[in-house]
Amino acid sequence: MLIFLEDLEIYFLFMRDSNLPGAEMLKTVLEPLLEDFNYWFARSRELLETGQLSFMSHEEQSDLLLRVKQAQDELNAAKMLFTATDGQVGIEMTTLMPWHRLVTECWNVSMRFRQAREA
Prior knowledge:
The protein has helices at residues 21-50, 58-84, 93-118; strands at residues 2-5, 10-14, 89-91. The chain is mostly helical.
């Protein structure tokens, strides 16, 4: 069954049989992945909220911060459903890939921040 959470635009795929070997594999892979996203979004948000970054315009920084906050909201909803279903919820790749791209973008900003600080 596919559920659409309209406000957060997250798609979840519910597995019908909790005894499937794939269910345990899903939990083993997805749980740490969600924690990684949580960690990197939190670090990125802290960096973006700390002050103006010299290599970004105010608008660019505000836009990135807004996207990080939105991704955190989506991630929190995903984690709640994942926990409520005891790890039997899969997240569509169409949801994971934008998060991955955003984390990569945040890594690049963090790297530029460190380089600017060391210069």
